[in-house]
Amino acid sequence: MHGPGGRRGQNAAAELRRRVHEIIRLRMAGDVASMVRLFVENVELTYNCTKLGLFPAGQWRGRDALRENLRRTDIDYEPFDAEILSVLVEGDRTAVRWLGKWRHRATGQIFRMDMAHFLRWRNGLVAQMSEFVDHHCASRAPDVLIPNFEEMLAPGDPGLDRDEIARRMIELGNFSERGPSVALFREFCAPDVVCEFVGDRASISYAGRHRGMEALANIIRTIGVEFEQLGHAMPEVVVDGDCAAVRRTVEWRHRGTGRLGLVELADFARFRKGLIVEIVEFRDSVALLQMQD
């Protein structure tokens, strides 16, 4: 049974999911004209940890800026293949995580990109888009936590209500100047939690996929040694069933260089029986490298 507006809300969420899939399909098919029509004329764009040398990170506005981003990318890289890993929908907001493969036109080499987008919709069109993209890296097999058949048919039980999931995600990210709390992660995460920090290990030593609370605790301590968090903006949270996505802006100071920087981060988490069993984090690696010198 559906409560008042329940079926209408489900239909609206299903339509936004369909549109997210359509945007990615059109992008990888090279049909930029059709894709851009799914964005409002004055769409607000934010690019993070993005396409160094192709399109600078920062904020842009309008369909023309979106077209220019795509044009510059397509000069050197041909869209090849894509796999959507998750689409979360809550109200007029969606968060999508996906893998894109691109062929370098000059060499024919295939590169894989880990990508995430946070979208806000207006009358069925994208009004705001925030993009997170890993640096170019050689193609490798996807290393994702595959749900079992039962989980594909129906989402698992998160064991928490929506507000508690959001509260925990916000609390984990808003740590003090002393650094992130290992104790809090131990409280909120399963002992065998899978964590992934998207990025290149050549520049971020702990980038990659890890399993277990002890591995996560070591990474948390490493981050606390390197960076001091001075402030943060109110994060954007999307909760959909047993999954949550958070986009946040923090002010960090590198303890070694003393340099300050605003860093955009995005976290995708999956809950089971009240605990986080998987967490994937994107971060503005360009900003981090500039702070590290």
**Total beta strands:** 14
The DSSP helix count reads 8
CATH topology of the largest domain: Nuclear Transport Factor 2, Chain: A
Query: In percent, how much strand structure appears in the residues?
Result: 35-45%
Tell me the major beta sheet: 7 strands, mixed
Structure report:
This protein has 2 domains: 133 residues, Nuclear Transport Factor 2, Chain: A (Roll); 144 residues, Nuclear Transport Factor 2, Chain: A (Roll). About 5% of the residues have low confidence. The longest helix is centred in the N-terminal third of the chain and has 24 residues. The relative contact order is 0.14. With 293 residues, it is α+β, with helices and mostly antiparallel strands.
Write the layout of secondary structure elements.
Blueprint: H1 6-29, H2 32-36, E1 39-48, E2 58-61, H3 63-76, E3 77-90, E4 93-104, E5 110-122, E6 125-133, E7 137-138, H4 149-153, H5 162-173, H6 182-188, E8 189-197, E9 208-211, H7 213-226, E10 227-232, E11 236-240, E12 243-254, E13 260-272, E14 275-283, H8 285-292
Parallel strand pairs: 1-6, 8-14
Antiparallel strand pairs: 1-2, 3-4, 4-5, 5-6, 5-7, 8-9, 10-12, 11-12, 12-13, 13-14
